[in-house]
Design brief:
The chain is α/β, with parallel strands linked by helices. The protein has 18 helices and 20 strands. The strands form 4 sheets. It has a 7-stranded mixed sheet, sandwiched between helices. Strands 15, 16, 17, 18, 19 and 20 form a 6-stranded parallel sheet that branches. The longest helix has 20 residues. About 50% of the residues are buried.
């Protein structure tokens, strides 16, 4: 029932925009522009509603929903809150089944807004209408180019990550951030005050969606924790769920209440429940994106044994510390691997994990690419290694490293590998795009790199525990 009732939000055959403006700076105009710009097949089925206009962005405008001669699957509303009861009655008369309310001024503003929101919900329920919002930025479905947000979207990359967000910043900020990090999305749903559709409904929908491989959520409050746990414990058996929970501190909880009228749950209780059912908890927005990238792109490791490949002794030491803190085992290399690497390492510096290749290059005078190829292939072949942290210094002196060789070796390797790049921004940008074009995740900080590997291991361990 839930997944079927949400289908009109993501796969409508027609869309009406109430509050469609002729002013290109207004949100109602931007919504129509997004629908028109992104997919010509929607143009014939986008209906701007503006009683004072004949056309909006060259599309025929209508004075109200009731005047549209055709069937309407989805209505997007961006008008003053006080107008919503009338609009919802028109939607009911038109037999609309899905309404996105992007207008603010409801439960988040106090008693008067709460009463108005309750009235809107009563009308919707009596007519069998599902609501996303109010006080939200709507839906994005990258697979059919449906974009209902009032934030202009000029670029989007398709991928396997679907997002649930309780804040409007995710339409204007998260999507560009995903794109800048080469991570594609499948769907985004921002539900604001969640007067009807909530995070659990959307998790259920994404769980059945063949285009969704990873489910990522930003939540400020959890309305029904018991239901969330019941649904998520089944979903995590099939697809990873990552949650960034806002409102964990007293200050954050107070801000969440005024932002989206959400009551934040006790942090330690929520975290314990998440861990038990296999939900991965991100501490930062960077981790929400990083975990999503790793889980969408990489195989799960067999275990927590990590090999660290570095050209910096200090980088190796710091990495080993970080791995140990995150529960990853900086494993001893197999005798076979040690024997292979001894061919290029000086006698006074026998190879060990972390594998610092600089002595092999600078002292033993072996070629840069020869050493990189031998070391990477050795750890790929080493059965005592489950995953790889590859540290690359993006320096002008090392720009002759054969990145394509490294990529080609890793593409057919089932062991997950993440790359930590640091150094010259110009070289970083070039190398990062080349790695990530082949779904090899690159991180710009050590801690993000290690936590991404940990997320893979934690989810693998959870899946093994339920067999």
């Amino acid at each position: 029932m839930t997944t079927e009732s949400l289908k009109p939000f993501f796969e409508p055959q027609s869309v009406a925009v109430v509050g469609a403006s002729r002013d290109p700076s207004k949100g109602g105009s931007i919504i129509v522009g997004n629908l028109k710009r992104w997919d010509s097949k929607f143009v014939e089925r986008v209906y701007p509603i503006n009683p004072g206009a004949d056309k909006v962005l060259d599309l025929k405008a209508y004075p109200s929903l009731k005047e549209i001669p055709d069937k309407v699957d989805l209505v997007v509303v961006l008008t003053p809150a006080r107008t919503l009861p009338t609009i919802m009655k028109d939607a009911a008369e038109k037999n609309v089944k899905a309404v996105i309310i992007e207008s603010a001024g409801f439960a988040e503003v106090g008693p008067e807004g709460i009463a108005l929101q309750e009235e809107v919900v009563r009308i919707a329920k009596s007519a069998g209408i599902r609501i996303i919002g109010p006080n939200c930025t709507g839906i994005i479905n990258a697979n059919n180019n449906l974009i209902t947000t009032f934030v202009e979207v000029s670029e989007i990359t398709k991928g396997g990550v679907s997002v649930v967000a309780q804040t409007g910043m995710f339409a204007g900020t998260l999507i560009p951030e995903f794109i800048s990090q080469n991570l594609g999305i499948s769907k985004v749903a921002c539900f604001g005050n969640k007067a009807d559709v909530d995070e659990v409904d959307l998790i259920e929908y994404y769980a059945e969606d063949p285009d969704t491989q990873v489910i990522a959520l930003y939540l400020e409050g959890i309305a029904d924790g018991r239901r969330l746990i019941q649904v998520a414990k089944d979903v995590t058996k099939k697809k990873p769920i990552i949650i960034l929970k806002g409102g964990r501190s007293d200050a954050g909880a107070k801000a969440a209440l005024s932002h989206t009228a959400s009551i934040a749950g006790r942090g330690e209780v929520v975290e314990a429940a998440f861990k038990q059912i296999g939900i991965l908890q991100a501490e930062t927005l960077e981790d929400l994106i990083g975990f999503s990238k790793a889980l969408d792109w990489l195989e799960l490791p067999n275990g927590n044994r990590v090999a660290i490949f570095t050209a910096s002794g200090g980088g190796g030491v710091l990495s080993a510390d970080q791995c140990a803190q995150q529960g990853l085992n900086v494993v001893s290399l197999s005798p076979t691997t040690v024997s292979k690497l001894s061919e290029v390492f000086p006698e006074w510096m026998p190879p060990a994990n972390p594998i610092d290749i600089w002595p092999a290059i600078s002292v033993a005078k072996h070629g840069l690419n020869e050493v990189h190829g031998l070391v990477l292939q050795s750890v790929i072949d080493d059965k005592s290694v489950d995953c790889i942290l590859f540290i690359l210094m993006a320096l002008k002196e090392l720009e002759q490293i054969d990145i394509d060789m490294i990529i080609n070796m890793q593409v057919n390797n089932r062991k997950p590998m993440v790359v930590w790049l640091f150094g010259d921004p110009r070289i970083i940008s070039k190398w990062r795009d080349r790695f990530e074009d082949h779904r090899i995740p690159v991180f710009l900080t050590l801690s993000e790199s290690v936590r991404a590997l940990k997320a893979l291991y934690v989810y693998k361990k959870f899946k093994e525990s339920i067999k």
